[in-house]
Structures are given as C-alpha cells and as structure tokens.
UniProtKB/TrEMBL annotation:
Subunit structure: Laminin is a complex glycoprotein, consisting of three different polypeptide chains (alpha, beta, gamma), which are bound to each other by disulfide bonds into a cross-shaped molecule comprising one long and three short arms with globules at each end. Beta-1 is a subunit of laminin-1 (laminin-111 or EHS laminin), laminin-2 (laminin-211 or merosin), laminin-6 (laminin-311 or K-laminin), laminin-8 (laminin-411), laminin-10 (laminin-511) and laminin-12 (laminin-213). Interacts with ITGB1.
Protein name: Laminin subunit beta-1
Pfam families per the UniProt record, alphabetical: EGF_laminin, EGF_LMN_ATRN, LAMB1, LAMB4, LAMININ_IV_B, Laminin_N
GO CC terms of this entry: cytoplasm; laminin-1 complex; laminin-10 complex
Subcellular location: Secreted, Extracellular space, Extracellular matrix, Basement membrane
Name of the coding gene: lamb4
Main localization, broad class: secreted
Chain ranges passing through the membrane: none
Disulfide bonds: C293-C302, C413-C422, C732-C744, C734-C751, C753-C762, C780-C792, C782-C799, C801-C810, C845-C854, C857-C871, C958-C967, C1015-C1024, C1063-C1072
Cited CDD domains: EGF_Lam
Amino acid sequence: NFSFSVPVLVPGALLQEDCDVNSCHPQLGDLMVGRAAQLSASSTCGRNGPQNYCILGYLEDEQKCFKCDSRQPYNLYNNQNSHQIENVITTFGPERKMKWWQSENGVHQVSIRLDLETLFQFSHLVLTFKSFRPAAMLVERSKDYGYSWKVFRYFAEDCASHFPGVSQGPADSTDDVVCDSRYSASEPSTDGEVVLKALDPSFDIENPYAPHIQEQITLTNLRVNFTHLFTLGDTLLGRKKRNPQEKYYYALYEMVVRGSCFCNGHASMCMPVDGTRGDVLNEPGVIHGRCVCQHNTVGTNCERCQDFYNDVPWRPAGQSDPHVCRRCNCHGHSETCHFDIDQYQASGGVSGGVCDGCRHDRMGPQCERCRPYLYQDPQLSMEDPRGCISCDCDLTGSLDNGLCDPVSGRCVCKENVAGDRCDRCKFGFYGFSQEDPTGCQRCRCNFLGSVLIPYPCDQVTGQCCCSDGVASFCHIYFDLPGYWGLGNTVHTCSPCNCDHGGAYSSTCSSLDGQCQCLPNMVGRSCGDPAPGHFLAALDYYLYEAENAAPLEGKSSSPLRSIPLDPGSALQIVPRERTPDVPITWTGPGFVRVLDGAGLRFTVDNLPASLDYHLVIRYEPEVRATIHCSIIGWVAILDTPVCLNAGRRYYVDITFRKQPNSNPQSSSHTLVDSMGLIPKMESVQDFCSQSELDSFRRFRCFELAAEQETLPDVCYGLIGSLSARIHNGAMLCRCNIQGSHGPYCSKFGGLCECKANVVGRCCDSCAPLNFGFGPNGCAPCECDRRGAVAELCDQVRGQCPCRMEVGGRRCDRCLSGYYGFPLCRPCKCNGLAELCDQDTGACLDCREHSTGNNCESCVEGYFGDPVSREPCKPCLCPDTQSSGRFFASTCNKDPESGSLTCDCLAGHTGLRCDACSAGFYGGLTAPGGGGCEECLCNNNIDPADSDACDSVTGECLRCLHNTQGPRCQSCKPGYYGDALAQDCKECSCDRQGTDVTQCPLGSPCFCDPLTGQCPCRAGAVGTLCDECATGFWNIQGESGCQPCKCDPGTDRPACNPLTGECLCRVGVMGIFCDECAPGYDQVFPACLPCHPCAVLWADNVTDVHRAAQRMRTFIPPHGEQLEPGHSRQLQRMLEMHSKLDYLGNLTGRSLPLVKDVEKLNLGAVHIFLPHRKLKDSIDPNAIIVDSSSLLNTEIDNIHHEFKMLLDNLRNKISEAPTLDLKEMQEALEKIRKQHADFMADEKKVKEAERALENSMDTRQEIKDHLSSCSILGDMEGLEKKVKALSVAKLNKNICGGPGDEECSKSECGGALCRDFLGQRECGGPTCKGSFPVSHNATKTAEQVENDLIDLLQKLKDSKIKACSQILISMVAPEDIENLVKVVLAIQLPGSPDDIRSMIQNIRGVLTNFIDFKEDLKKLKDQAKTAQDLLEKAQAIRLASTMFFICVTVTLYKHAG
C-alpha cells in the first residue's frame, strides 16, 4: 500500500484579492462525500447473511416482508437488498430512495460514527429516516480523534424518562446542552428528519473565534447514538411467536454533515490532507481538510505563522482586520526568529519578533545593536555586515574600560565627566583626573551670581568668576536691596519696580520679584487690578447736575426737585445718544440754568482726606437758529479744596452772566456735572519728583478734566493714585441685568452695557428708553403726533399724552375717540360709547340699533335712531325672539303708518303668516317652525299651490312619471332615477315577457331601478327579447320553445330563429344524433379517426366527384353512335362502373387503396383526350358543358383587365415630370405668403381695434364738448393759448426776449451760441433765472471765502478769549489747558462742506431744463448759503460765549 497527494493549484492573485482586506473562508459542503471508508455503524442488517425484516402496512395486497443482505455493496441491478452504512451518503442519483442504511431488527443501542482526517468546522447535521425516527437519540463530537467525546444535543419524545436530569430548554447560551423533543414524534412514519445546528441562530455571535464558539463548531469525529426504537406499543420484542422485532429497526435514507475546512479565516480554498487516498480526490463535491493558507500562515488549519513571519502574534482573521502575520526585521543578520510576548508588550504592541543567532557582531531582538565595546558606524547602514566598529573612549573619564553606547558610540562616563569620549569635566566641575572615582570635583560657586560662560570656575584651580552687582565671593548668596532675580534673568539683580499705589512697599521677593500687593491688585509689580476690579480715573467722583438740588435766585434754600417742563429757572434737558454723534456729556443730559440760578451738589463718598480740584462741565446754549453740536466746556476752581473722608459736604454753585457779555447770547447755560479730582501733590510719599514732572508735562490733569484720551504715562500714574487712595482696586459692581458680564474695563471701571443701558455700572436706562431688565432697555418711541414730550416713564414706558390720546406710545385715540392724530369724539347718536379707532364706526350699538353711526335698526326692528325714534320689534307674525318670526325685516309706510314685512323664502302674507306654494309648515302652532320646502325631489310644479300638503309636506301631484310621498320613485311601468327626473317607460318585448306583468293598454311592469323585464321561461335579456341557449322562436305565439336537439349540438344548441340544430365538430344529422365521416361512430363521443382515414375520405370524395362528371359525357341509353365510337363508350362505361364500386367502398385494405391509385392514373389518361372524344360525339346530343360559359367569362375579364391596364399606362405616360426643387420653392412661397397674410390680418384687427378706440374717444370728446354750455370759456382758453410766447419764456430764463439777432442781444437767447459753440444765455445786467443762479453761485463762492477768513479770525481770537477766561476763572498754571479747550471748538460746517454745497449748485445749473423747477432749486440753494452765513455769524457770537461767574459755597454736614 502507498499513498500520494495531488497538490491543488490555485491562482495566488485571485486568493490574495479575496483575502487582502478581511477574513476569508472556504465554502461549505457535505463532509460525508468521499469518506465512505471513514464511516461506520455498530449494527447493519444482513452483514453476516440474509436477514428478514417487515414493514408496517394495512393493504392486503401489499408485500410486507423483505430480505436484507449487506455482505456486498449496494448495486442497482444485482444487489438492491444491500443496506450498508455508505448508502446514506448523498449522491443525487435516480436511485436515492431505492437504497438506504438499515440496522438489525430489534436492536435499540446503535451508533453511526464519522472519522475525519483532521480538524473541520461543523455547521449542521440532517438525518432523513426511512423508518420511524428514534424515540431517543443523542449526537456527540470529538476534537481529539475519538479520545474524548462531548454531547451536542439530546433528542427524545419523552426527555424526562429517557434522559433524566437534562434540561428541556430552551438553551441559555450557545454551548448549553439541552434535550429537544421536536424531532422524535411518530409522524411522519417515513421521510422524517432530525436537524442539528452547531450554533443556535437565536443567539448573536460577536466573536466567532471565541474559545467557547470554537469548541462548539470544530471537530475531528462525529457520532450519532440511537438509544431507543419507536415501537408503537410493542414493548416485548423478545416474544418469538409473532416476531414483532422484525418490524422495528433504524433505517436512514440520507445523513448530511455540512461543514468546511477549518482555516481560522486565513484561506478560501483547501486541498487534500497528506496521506489520504488518491481516489478520494477524484470524487466531485469532496471537502478537503488542508487549507491553502494566506496571510503568511501555515498549518493544516492555518493555525500558526510561517517561519520568519513572527513579528506579531498569530490570531484568527477578523471581519475588518485579516491579522496578517508580519515578517521579522533582522536587518539581514539572521534568517530565523520567534515570537516573544514580553517583547511584544514592552514595545506597546508594535513588534514581538526576536531574531535567532544574530551574525556580524550583532545582538538585540532585531539584531539592531552591536555587541559590547562596539557601536554602529554612522557612515554605514544598519544592514551592512561591517557596520559595527570599536568604541573610542578616554580611559581616564570612562567606566568599564571604555564601554560605549552601541548605537551612538557615546562612551559611558564617570559621574562628573562629559563628552562623547568622556574626555572633559561636566559643566560646573573641574580637576579632570583618572584617580578620582567620579572623574572631576564640583565648583564651589553660586551659579546665580557667577558668570557661566564658558565655565563658572577655572577648570584647573576651581576659581569662581562673579557677575556685576554680586559680591566677589560668588559662593555667598547676596542681593542688593530693591533688586531681585539673582541669576534668574538675563540681567541679574533686576530692580523690583513695585507700583507706588498698588504695592505696600518698594521691596519685593528676592526669588521671583513679586511685590506685596494691596487688596485686589495683581501682577508682579502690583500694577494691575484683579479680574472683576478696576482702577478709578481722576474724574471718578462725578456728580450729575440732574441729581443736584435746585437753588433759585439769591436764596440758598433748595427746592424739592428739578422739573422736566420748561418755564422755570432750572430744567432737565435729556439728550439722546445716537451712533453718529460723539458723546461729550455724562449722565442722562444737562440742566438748563437761568442766569442767577444755582445747584446744590451733595458730596459724601470721598475715599481719602486730600486736596481736590473742583471741576464744572457745561455747554453754552446756542440760539435755535444753530442746529449743531457744541463740544462741552470745563471750568476749574482756582484753588483746590481740602475735604476729609467720611464727611458730608454741600457744594452750592450759582451761575451768572458777566456784565460785559454779549447781549445777543442766551440767558441760560447747560450744566452737565461737577467733579472732584484729587490733587496728586497732596498724597504723601506717593511718587518721585520726576514722575510729578511727567504728570504735568503730559497734562494728565487737564486731559482727565476734559475727558480726553490720555497718554500711557498718565494711565500708569492715575492708576497708581487710584490704588493708593482706595487701598487697592475697586469692585466693578456691574449690574447683572444691565451688563453682559461681571467684568469691566481695567481703567475707569466701565461695564459692557446691554442695548440702551447707560451708567458706569450699567444700572439705568439711557434717555428716551425704559424697562430696565435682563434684555436691556427698550426705546420709548413716543409718537410725536400724540405725545407732549419724548421722555417716558422709566419703569412702565408710558409717554405723556395729549388729553384725547392714549396708549403707551401715545399712538392712538382714547376710548370714545377716533381719527388719530386728530382724535374726535365718536358719533353714535347716543347709542354707543366706543367706535373703531380708524374709521369711527360705532361698536356695540344699543337698543337694537346698528350701522357705522348707530343710525339704523337691526333686522327684525324698525324705527329711526337719527330722529331719536327708538327701534321697535317687527310682528311678522310675532317678535323675533318668539320663534315665529319669518321675515328679514319690516318697513313702515311714512304716509299710512302701516307695517310691511319682508318675508323669508317660503313665506307669504302681510305678516308672513302663510306658506308659499311648494312649502309647508305649522305656522299657527305655538313655537312652531317656519315654512320648509316640500321635499319632492324637484318632481312637482313649485308654482302649484296644491302640489304638496301645506301642513305635512306630503307630495300630491308628482311629475315626470314619479310617485310616492316624496316623489322618490318611478310609477309602475317606468324605471330609472326619479331623483334625477329620469323615469323612462319600460320597453319589454311582450312575446318574451310574463303575461301577468303586461296588462293591456299600459306598458309592461319592469324593475323600477334597472328596467329588467320579467321574462317567460326560455327568454332572456333586459327586455326579454332573446331566447336563452337551447330555445328558439321568440316571435312565436308561445314564445321561446326548446330546441329538441341531441347532445351532439354546439353552443347554442340550435338557431334562435329557425330552430335548426347546430352540430359540433364530428357530429351530423338533423338532430345532431350521429357521428360524421372521419370520426369514430360511437355516439355521442365521436372521437376523430386516424389521420389516414381523413386522406381516404378525401380520395373517396374525389372519386365520387369524378364519377358524377363522367356521367355528363356518357350518351343516354338507346342513342346511336357513330362507327368507331363504341369502343370508347364501352371503356367509359367500364370505368364508370369501377368508379361507382370504389365510391361505395368502406373497407380500408391496402390493395383497395392501390386500386384507387391506379384508377386515378387511368382517369388522367382518359380526361386528357376528352376534347377529341367530345368532337366525335353526335352534335345533336344534349351534353351539359359549362366550360364554354366559363371560358367566355374568363375572356371578358381578361379583356376588361387589358383595357384598364392600357388606360393606366396612357395616364402614366401623359403625366408631366415634376421638379422636386421647383416644388420645394413653391412650397416656401406658399408658406411666406401665408405668413404675410396672417401678419396683414393681425394688422387689420389692430387697426379695427384702434378705430374702435378712436370712435370711443371721439364720442367722449363730443360728450365733454356738449357739456360745455358757456362759449366764453372756450374763447378765453383760445386767447391764453395764443398768448403763449417763446419771447416771454426766453425773457424769464435769459433775461431778454431773444427776438433780436444773437450778436445784438445783451442777454442772448435759446438759439444763441458763443464763438466756442456753447449756448449763450444771460449777462451782467440780465434778470433771468439763469443769470440770477449764476450770480448766486458767485455769491456762494464769496461766502465760502468769507467763512474761511472768519475761521482764521476766530482761531486768532481764541487766545484772547482764553486770556479773559483765565483771568476770571482759571489759575495761571492751567492756561495751557484752557487754550486747548478753546482751540478744540469746532464749527458746524467746514470749508469742504461749503465747497460741496457749491458743487451741488453747479451740478444743478448744468442739468438746467425746466426753468421753474430749477429756479426753485436755486432759491433753496441760496437759502442754504444764507443759513450757513447765519450759522457762522452765530458761532462768532457764541465765541464770545456765556461767561460764568461761579460762586462756590461749602457746607459741612452737621453730623
């Protein structure tokens, strides 16, 4: 014996394509195929000799016992009684159900075992039984080639008795072993199946390679154990009398074990296992067991990686990751490797391959390192065999006799030695020596105070090198006062620079330079406020004039509050903030102060006892002719005031005009606020003299007082001052509702306010806004047409309205008024208080009145509310609320005073107390309803008063052939849709209709809906006008009669008119009672005969026809023939006799058929010379020959056809030849003419339409002319038309009539041009619109020049005005500040603006067309120039300004 294997060649590219990106698996198949030798059974019938067995049967003639002889394999032809175990392997052959495996009779314990050559993946098992299925059985599997077994599943009809202790399910997991009772019933008695699936499909499998799943689906052996036969109650199989055991055994048709080669997801095909028989490979459908592995795997089941592919651990392939085995990287220094789990984990799961036996002085997992005392040559690659070279280390400073790093070659130095070769001391060490175990000694220097470049100490002596500012002994830690950061910065010993105001002192931490900060101050130098805090500006202590108490006249007693309304000495004037106007004021606005009036400010919030500068911000009031913004002015008290913290002061300020002020200036001034600015010099030990000089040089105080932008120097000094006097930074205190967050600006503390919210803390609404809340403030939006002021209530937003106006915005009329803004009282005739706000239509009219002015009565009432006649109820016939009111309204005759009701539909009478024709109702009953339309479905005459009952509504006179209480159905004898007035007379056929339903003198009765007539027996159809199948003679006296035909008829059985029976194919006879020729004579079947009979019948028919024709050629008996004709006649008679004989033949013998054929040939020879025979016969003989007639007819037809053919040819030859091109051109001409015709037709229609419009217009003109009764008007109009003159128009424009020649005319004209070709119009003395506008342009240019000169003069006079102000109000040291204030005054319009206006005027002149409109525009432009001139003059007056004489009185609070 020998074995061989045939390798299976599979294209690698194809396999690789399937397995590159995910797992791949071989296809499933039947593991039984090809493994008959590996299949065995513990019991097989007839194994040792013939053995009888019986089946269960109930038919008497059925064979019940058979013989089994399984000594030889099964053979379909000579050994069908063999039932060996290999018969259960599926072959799909024609003898599938003729062979099976069968066990010995009466044996309960039988097992079938399949032994596989290697590990396979099992899918499911299907057993198909010829006998009853076992009463109990179990399936086992083995993974160790039968050494140990595990149960797959138990099967039993009664699990508790056959397998006690086994769960009956359902299974809780995939590997749960249970007993299944579904496959052990008695039915079916044959072809019953047992199915076992390796994995229950009811469970979701997340990881098919989990150990418990692999344990369930892989096997090397499968065993089926039958433990108990199904015996149908015959439990005593041991009885020999009846031998019941011969009926009970196990018999299997098929055993299918579905599975595949198990390859762990690394193969898609398999090949035979080494050592298997070669004949197995040739059997189709065999599932081989050795995988054709991919992913660099090997093994029967691809259970390990290939040699030298061990860089990652072997794993089964997954759905998304094939887990390909990766090649080891040994850099060419080894050809073998192994996987090391510790190495894999240490690399973070990157590489686990360890190379074996590294060559070329290499070591390491990947042969990546050189051996000790060698290192990688940087000039060579790691794969180079000569890559490892010897170490080059200084033995004085290196350890281990010059051991170096195997990668970089860096030597392993002593503790205090450095360098690639260990040939020098580390930084900070000195004294390189071989005797020193550490190699070098540490420098005794403090690095923070030493010069570190190139070394902190001498490399031989160890002498330290100290940096500047540090003591000569660097090893002593020393720092100068006010400095920090020894060695921690580029420049050692940096100054502290602690903030004068934000830090407690000027010293700081010597380590990090951190100063000790005041509360809420942060930063190294304590110069910044902490988050949520700020540093106050110089003018932080600001007191708004709006919050001050009023002082009137010379008295010092304050009033309660300052009013908003004008007319008093003090008035609050709010100013709205707009995006395009700079904000030069604080708070809501200003206080308008009359000359001599004053304000009292309360001061009680000072943080420190200091000298304070008192600052007053105000604006001069400009007369109403100036509509421009004036930048605020500042007045500063000459002498600072000393105020103490924690005390309350009252500051009274009285405002007076200077005696020598401009008399044209206003008697009022606008006061914004009063401020207290701390004097920096009064703060002790705050800053140095140089800082004070900088404070003055950069004019920090003046800029802060004027609220101008500050230089950075000022910000720092003012911030430090704020921190000093406030003991740190101040809390922002941003209002939660009014601000966007809790943070504010670092300097000034301004919070980020929401829309329309103002204040440093965002705690109030801006002027002309209200409703402070989480969303900010909403604008008042007071309607100027109805409000007396623009301000509204700060909380509710209510605007102050005129007397008759209401609404929050004063934008609608009050109740009882309409027509905003000219609100007028509602006009409702005293019958309503409210009306529509827009139209004035009255609402909710009383006393049954209605209308826009309650001027009429509602329906059901009459009267005249305008004449104060109340509305009274109409009696039609009763009141509207009684339920018996049947009118829409009523009317009162003004002359007779009688009442007339307008009745509702269906009512009639003076008081609507009766129903109209076609209506009904009980009007007289109390509470009865009105008249309703009679429901007669439009089948009555609505004008007929008697058409329906006037009380009940029953229909009495139905029309359109209808009847019923609602005329809802057709009358008898009619049918159709009565509701659609479509009742038609029944049209029944009286011969076919039931006599009782057709009375004389009236139409027959039919179905009232469908019109179906009641038919007699045998009649059908909607009108009963047809006989049913099997009947005929509809026109007979008795109607349709039965056909009386035999069953051989077709459908219908007989002709419905004549009663003739209509036979079906194959039947004949008057009553269709016999079979036709060519059909079997067994009636009524009459089956068709053989096709040969049809041919025979055709031949017989031909013979009959030939015989009949020959009789026409035989002369009558007794006639004399010419000599020589007797012989032909005798032959014809003989032939005729034979034809008669053949025609009467009924037999079908072959000789007779041949005789017929011979006779046919003889007839041919006879009929060929028939003309010669005819000529030899006596001419007087009467012979009927129709051929001459036929010949004549044929000749006539031929002649007529020839004539028609000749005519056709003549017509074709006479037809002219048509040119296709000419036809195309003619067609195009026709199309063009058609288009022209259609266009002309459209023009004609349009002309007709225009003519009609002209006629209409002419008629309208005639009507208008006819309405003119005064002829003088027409004459006056004619005179005005004639009076129109171009000369006058020319004079108005150019200043002259223009009736002279252009060379002589001083003012030119419309048609005049100068030598340059430009139009010439106007002159120096001309008064036309064009020269006037030209002079206005020159005037505007002159105004421009004058304004520029005035501006220069104003700038020159500012210094003089400044000096006057300083003398009366300002200290000498603040002259420079006040000069800047004066220089900061801006005019409302710059020269560029004036130039722009002049350019607009010129643009108007260039587009001069309509002189009247252009003249109006020029006048407007001239007026604008005049207004500018007045503004300039007003500014010049304002420059002399409202000088304020300020008197300040300080009152200290008594407390």
